[in-house]
Amino acid sequence: MNRAHPNYTRPNYEQSPFASLNPHRLYRDPERGKIFGVCAGIADYFGVEVFLVRLAAVMGAVFFTMPVVAAYLLAALVLKVKPPHVYASREEEEFWRTVATKPDRTLAGLRHRFRDLEKRLRGMETYVSSKEFELNRAINDLDR
After folding, report:
1. Using CA atoms, how far apart are residues 45 and 30, in angstroms rounded to an integer?
2. Distance between CA 139 and CA 144 in Å, rounded?
3. Interior CA angle at 97 toward 85 and 119, to 5°?
4. Which of 7, 28, 92, 106 could disulfide-pair with 79, CB 3.0 to 4.6 Å?
5. pTM above 0.90?
């Protein structure tokens, strides 16, 4: 099922030697944010609730006011605003999020998928090269 947005275009990654096909990046998210969207962007990146990140920011600001405020303002200046359509589909978003947060689980999932595909392919090759396939084909040719 493809839920791709009609205006989605994949970014050009050839402009930087450090560019990656992984669109999962740390952005500011002003749409979900209260001030500059830094906490919302951090929450989106790590896949946690925005409330928890805001609570940590407020608690940090209470005990370490200057460093937390300075870090927040620096992040607001440095982080890019989240593009409206980072991922082509929900499945792509889930894949890249797990690559960033749990790469070993993603690799194991891909390994499992490829093993399953290889097993199915072996079954098809076995059937196509069998006498049963030749017999079924001959019977089908008689019906024509």
Report:
1. 14
2. 9
3. 110
4. 28
5. no
Would you state the structure tokens that stand for residue 134, as one six-digit string? 């030749």
User: What length is written for the chain?
Assistant: 144
Q: Using one digit for the tens of pLDDT, what is the confidence trace for 51-97? A: 998 999 999 999 998 999 999 899 889 888 887 776 677 777 777 77
**CB 30, CB 81: distance < 8 Å:** yes
> Which amino acid is it at 61?
A
* Residue 28: strand pairing partners: 81
Q: Which two tokens stand for residue 100?
A: 């960033």
Residue 81 phi, psi (nearest 5): -75, 140
Angle subtended by helix axes 65-78 and 50-63, to nearest 10: 130
**Unique residue bearing structure tokens 């940590």:** 56
